[in-house]
Amino acid sequence: MTSVEITYIGGPTAVIAIGGLRLLTDPTFDAPGEYPVGARKLVKTAGPALPAEELGPVDAILLSHDQHPDNLDASGRGFLQGVPVTLSTASAYERIGAPVRALGPWESTELARPDGGVLRVTAVPAQHGPDGSLPLVGEVTGFVLSGEGLPKVYVSGDNASLDVVREIADRQGPFDVAVLFAGAARTPLVPDAPLTLTGEDAARAAQILGAARVVPLHFEHWGHFTEGGPALTKAFAQAGLTDRLRLPEPGGAVRVP
């Protein structure tokens, strides 16, 4: 089985190199500052470790959702136009149009690999907050990457629900690699519950998924994240899963499994 290389750009943004293809998650390349979302503002505390122009070719974008600036910002929207396809939600397609291609839950598409094989990308559910939060936060998707001779990879997007994780594990698991959006994001929009996985829930998700390796994303670089790298490290240690965690450094690459 070949490996996967994940280069961490910052926030939710990373390049996933798998099967000879390079996929970019949730493009965010804007500078630090305040970014409006409705009547609120999200505060970005650090810029990208690598600028967009230094990323090299990207074969496809995995966009969990487009409606929040910490997942798709102005620079990221521009970046979409230079990539062959962006896979995302039906809502994102309605708002952006081409090059977005909508994938509904459990729908798949295939990307041609240089070796003549294919990389299958399957959209999977995501719940961006507690039960009942969909009308407030909007539609989100996760992804599963699979193919002959390749590790199976789960990319969670902004999901906070372990019930969703269990459904994905039941239908698609086990996984070699889980790319989990974590950070226990909290905003006044949903004041009583996190909008993404806590460190404890990320560790539990790793167990549910049967994931041999976990690479967290979206746990830092924005003011609304309440649990950063140290909290993730502690949670995985307490769960006896230190050997599974691969905490990335901005600008660095993690090769897994």
Automatic annotation (TrEMBL):
<protein>
    <submittedName>
        <fullName>Zn-dependent hydrolase</fullName>
    </submittedName>
</protein>
<dbReference type="InterPro" id="IPR050114">
    <property type="entry name" value="UPF0173_UPF0282_UlaG_hydrolase"/>
</dbReference>
<dbReference type="InterPro" id="IPR001279">
    <property type="entry name" value="Metallo-B-lactamas"/>
</dbReference>
<dbReference type="Pfam" id="PF12706">
    <property type="entry name" value="Lactamase_B_2"/>
</dbReference>
<feature type="domain" description="Metallo-beta-lactamase">
    <location>
        <begin position="22"/>
        <end position="219"/>
    </location>
</feature>
<keyword id="KW-0378">Hydrolase</keyword>
<dbReference type="GO" id="GO:0016787">
    <property type="term" value="F:hydrolase activity"/>
</dbReference>
<dbReference type="InterPro" id="IPR036866">
    <property type="entry name" value="RibonucZ/Hydroxyglut_hydro"/>
</dbReference>
